[in-house]
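User: Hello! I'm new to structural biology and keep hearing that structure can be predicted from sequence alone. Could you demonstrate with GyrI-like small molecule binding domain-containing protein? Please show me the input and the output so I can see what each looks like.

Assistant: Of course. The first part below is the input, the amino acid sequence of GyrI-like small molecule binding domain-containing protein. The second part is the output, the predicted structure written as tokens.
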Amino acid sequence: MKFEWRKQEKELYLPKARPMEITVPKQKFYTISGKGDPNEPQFGEETAALYAMSYGIRMMPKKGIVPEGYFGYTVYPLEGIWTLSDESVAAGREFNKADLVYKIMIRQPDFVTEELALANLEQVSQKKFNLNNQNVKFETIEDGKCVQMLHVGSYDDEFKTFEIMKRYCDERQLVRRTFAHREIYLSDPRKVMPEKMKTVLRYFIE
């Protein structure tokens, strides 16, 4: 039976359209760090590199390689941790996507070791050229205690959901650990209308 994150990890990936508190454990990711407007071509190329690496792991058994502990699974969704550049914050500039700083990532199953991840990175890079392959890293990240909520709609309307999350935190005296936040993209913007897109938004709290 194939492991499907949408069914087996609903608490992490399918929250309600209202704030909820959750503790997120350590997870393994392929990541790329960058900055600038995500609507620019560079962001798409970085995303493509992450998916190539992730499917490289997923398809290993078809190439005759079965890692220890391997199990069938659905590739995890794209995620991103977003904040603003120190310069824009210091200058007090109005929000501009060009000032965004991010780390985008795709989670990997627990059986993926650092050795396996790096070997896969090298193999995929040889077959699928992408300048961003050299920037892909394998990391373990722990979000810890968080407040998260499902946002339905355009990315440009996320501020409405953030306002609800902020009120929730203020009412319960929950303090954000960092100005950064996480987004988990459940919809493919190439296939889903903006008003129907689903994105998990997550604050890191103390």
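User: So the tokens describe the shape?

Assistant: Right, they're a compact way of writing down the 3D structure. Reading them back into a model, for example: The mean pLDDT is 96.
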